[in-house]
């Protein structure tokens, strides 16, 4: 059986925040958006329907918890949740907090801005801000 490996592009573009029961929880290294990605630790999975029914339910649970926490932390106007996979085929689910005042509103973030990595200080602050995600206890 193959072992889970994070896609090279996700590895390059993100910072690991924590590990939940099913997913790696990754921060997209792209200012100015609060942008977190869930990646199920299942080798070779490209689509949600390829997960078992139990894994699909767990993915939804983790996505809902993440979305709720992101909106609580950032008080966004909208949460965009998407599993596109056109560039990175490994199943991963984006969670992007959106604001009516952001640089892309109301268009999607994909292809509508030039991603700039966080400065070292801003990255440290964002990770601390999202530290509550690593404190999540699952039943």
Uncertain regions spanning at least 5 consecutive residues: none
Q: Can you give the mean pLDDT?
A: 94
The Cα radius of gyration reads 15 Å
Strand order of the largest sheet: 1-2-3-5-4
Task: Write the CATH homologous superfamily.
Answer: HIT-like
Q: Regarding CATH, which class? A: Alpha Beta
The helix/strand order is: HEEEHEEH
Shape: globular
Number of strands: 5
Task: Note the main sheet.
Answer: 5 strands, antiparallel
Task: Sum up the structure in keywords.
27% helix, single chain, 5-stranded antiparallel sheet, HIT family, subunit A, globular, alpha+beta
What is the strand and helix layout of this fold?
Layout: H1 8-13, E1 14-19, E2 23-28, E3 35-40, H2 53-74, E4 78-82, E5 93-98, H3 120-129
Antiparallel strand pairs: 1-2, 2-3, 3-5, 4-5
What can you see in these coordinates?
With 139 residues, the chain is an alpha+beta fold. The chain is built from 3 helices and 5 strands. The chain has helices spanning 8-13, 53-74, 120-129, and strands spanning 14-19, 23-28, 35-40, 78-82, 93-98. It has a 5-stranded antiparallel β-sheet with strand order 1-2-3-5-4. A hairpin with a 3-residue loop joins strand 1 and strand 2 (23-28). It is globular. The two termini are 28 Å apart. The mean pLDDT is 94.
């Amino acid at each position: 059986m193959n072992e889970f490996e994070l896609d090279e592009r996700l590895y390059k573009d993100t910072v690991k925040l924590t590990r939940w029961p099913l997913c790696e929880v990754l921060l997209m290294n792209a200012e100015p958006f609060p942008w977190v990605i869930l990646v199920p630790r299942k080798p070779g999975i490209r689509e949600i329907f390829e997960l078992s029914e139990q894994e699909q339910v767990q993915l939804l649970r983790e996505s809902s918890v993440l979305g709720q926490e992101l909106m609580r932390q950032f008080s966004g106007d909208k949460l965009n949740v998407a599993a596109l996979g056109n560039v990175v085929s490994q199943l991963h689910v984006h969670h992007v907090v959106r604001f009516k005042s952001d640089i892309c509103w109301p268009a999607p973030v994909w292809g509508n801005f030039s991603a700039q990595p966080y400065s070292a200080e801003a990255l440290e602050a964002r990770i601390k801000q999202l530290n509550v995600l690593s404190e999540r206890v699952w039943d």
